[in-house]
Amino acid sequence: MTEYEELLENYHENKPEDIDKSERLEIPEPRINIQGGKTYIKNFKKITKTLRREPKHLLKFISKELATAGNLEGSQASLKGKFKKRQVKKKLSQYVKEYVICDECGKADTKLTKFKGEQYKRCEACGARSPAKQI
Question: Contact 99/24 with Cβ under 8 angstroms?
């Protein structure tokens, strides 16, 4: 066995377990509950915490996209009307693409900032700044 092969074998035996994990944003599955004429997203605060976004911003986006009224009620959000889980998941995915994922490097390490009256998505990983639409 060559010195290189020994080093390679030693590396594979001693490398940290999490080194092969990719840094992928895993959005919690929305827990939907429909009562009467309202749809409740039970784990809304958990979703916004994972995305590192203000709950009001995400709720405003979802409400506008689904053409309905929405309210924050503790750790959950309520939407006027009956919406299926797949509809809410689709809107969450759109939000993530538009307001969370960096357009340059594809990472979720962004913050929404204002610069000269315009809203931008600023990446903390690569430093890129791209415009984000007003909701």
Answer: no
Q: 14 in helix, strand or coil?
A: helix
Q: What contacts 24+ positions apart, CB below 8 Å, involve 42-47?
A: 42/75, 42/76, 43/75, 43/76, 44/72, 44/75, 44/76, 44/77, 45/74, 45/75, 45/76, 46/75, 47/92
The fold of the 29-100 domain, in CATH, is Alpha-Beta Plaits (3.30.70)
Return the DSSP state at 71.
E
Tens of pLDDT along 51-87?
999 999 999 999 999 999 999 999 999 999 999 999 9
Domain ranges of the chain: 29-100, 102-135
Residue 32 bridge partners (DSSP): 41
Going by C-alpha positions, the residue among 89, 85, 86, 113 that lies closest to residue 99 is 113
**pLDDT tens digits, 100-111:** 999 988 888 899
